[in-house]
Design brief:
Elements (H helix, E strand, L loop, with lengths): L1 H24 L4 E4 L2 E4 H20 L6 H24 L4 H21 L1 H6 L3 H28 L24 E2 L2 E2 L8 H18 L3 H12 L4 H18 L4 H25 L39 H29 L9 H16 L11 H13 L4 H7 L3 H4 L2 H9 L1
Antiparallel strand pairs: 1-2, 3-4
Length: 421
């Protein structure tokens, strides 16, 4: 029996290692099939989901996390709206339509149904520690690559790993040029995708990470994306974090003020580097997105045109292609976890862990007002992972919080958690 548990722990660690490695560290590694990206991370996600589903069937699992199921049920109306829109109105773009189905049908079912049982039972220590290190690693590499490109004029490209094999040599064509200065892209190949994806995980990272130096590096990586959306999200994060998660005292106020000073100094330096003024931040045309407000001129209650994709301003595209009804279903799907949180129905609801995850979801919904990169890999995988973790009733949250000081209690959580089983 003990040997079987050891084997299961090794399998679990291998699974976490692979998924985090190829979803967080190397999200763009892969190939293209008929022009559609097939990344190793999404491939592994599908493979693990099938394995997990078989495990549920073999174990004859009949009870699931009710919060996962409730949120999953809240996604059903939009799933029906999305599928019916594609079937009845037609497909204007095959790749984006496929991404829509993966992002709003398959991935929510993967995390909220298939992975639900496992997330509630597993020891989260390895997952949280590896995730924390992975976020710092991609941030550090991103900062290095930014200055490497600035100095040498070249990107470092590793086919099948840091870039899709079909994108080698095409990095400069990915809308990352800011007046001759290229955005920080790390292994995400796009500054906005990097910023939006990591901003969702940043509140959790900031809670887990104790090193101020590492936190500064991650903050710096957001600044060097040279993205107004990411800058806006970062500022909102520091404000909300200081109000909602931190205790209101002089030390935390000074700490928040210090990070805000770093952020504004970094933005000022970035503007000078690009040769831009502060007017760039307050662009009246919203970086070319102002035209998307024209979608509001032909609003219909039900979907009425072929699906072409979700543009930067997420909510306007949802209204355009899914109508008012689809927009209401979309908001129900995206906001239901936060509604449960504010109704205090989420397990361990008031812990800093759950608050940080709620803040990550909130940040994404806010930056989607400008650029949500919704159908781009790996944005929605991150969102639904956070939702699943947020709604989990895993006791690790309670005990991890109590023993977060790794210097004194490095292995204590592991022993406490195993004793619960």
């Amino acid at each position: 029996m003990q040997k079987e548990k050891q084997i299961l722990r090794k399998q679990y660690k291998l699974m976490v290692f692979l998924l985090v490695s190829f979803l967080v560290i190397f999200p763009k590694g892969g190939v293209k099939v008929a022009g559609i990206p097939l990344t190793w991370g999404y491939f592994l996600l599908g493979l693990v989901s099938i394995t997990g589903l078989l495990g549920l069937l073999l174990k004859k699992v009949k009870t699931f996390n009710k919060y996962h199921l409730l949120t999953l049920s809240a996604t059903l109306p939009f799933q029906v709206s999305a599928v019916s829109t594609l079937l009845l109105n037609g497909i204007g773009d095959i790749g984006r339509s496929l991404s829509l189905i993966i992002s709003f049908v398959f991935i929510p079912w993967m995390f909220l149904f298939v992975f639900s049982h496992y997330l509630d039972k597993m020891d989260l220590t390895f997952l949280l520690d590896f995730l924390r290190n992975a976020i710092f690693l991609v941030a550090l590499y991103g900062v290095f690559l930014f200055f490497y490109k600035l100095e040498t004029g070249r990107f470092i490209e590793i086919p099948y790993l840091t870039v899709n094999a079909d994108d080698v040599g095409n990095m400069e064509n990915k809308f990352i040029n800011r007046g001759g200065i290229f955005k920080l892209i790390s292994t995400y190949n796009n500054g906005n995708i990097y910023g939006v994806s990591l901003l969702m995980l940043f509140p959790l990272y900031n809670l887990l990470e104790k090193s101020k130096f590492k936190k500064i590096i991650v903050n710096l990586s957001f600044i060097l994306t040279l993205s107004r959306t990411v800058w806006f999200g970062l500022i909102i994060y520091h404000i909300l974090y200081s109000i909602y998660i931190k205790r209101i005292n002089i030390n935390n106020f000074i700490s928040t003020l210090s990070f805000m000073l770093i952020v504004f100094t970094g933005i000022y330096w970035s503007l000078k580097l690009m040769g831009f003024e502060w007017s760039f931040v307050f662009d009246e045309r919203l970086g070319g997105r102002i035209e998307q407000f024209d979608y509001l001129e032909n609003i219909s209650f039900f979907p009425s045109e072929p699906f072409l994709g979700i543009a930067e301003v997420v909510y306007l595209s949802v209204i355009r292609f899914f109508g008012i009804s689809g927009f209401c279903f979309f908001m129900l799907a995206m906001c239901s976890p936060l509604v449960l949180h504010f109704l205090r129905k989420v397990p361990f609801n008031r812990t800093p862990f759950k608050k940080s995850l709620a803040l990550g979801l909130t940040l994404y919904l806010i930056v989607s007002l400008s650029d949500g990169a919704m159908l781009l890999i790996p944005v929605m995988a991150f969102y639904w992972f956070i939702v699943a973790l947020f709604l989990s009733n895993n006791p690790s949250f309670k005990y991890y919080e109590q023993h977060l000081d790794r210097k004194k209690n490095k292995n204590h959580l592991k022993h406490v958690f195993l004793s619960l089983r």
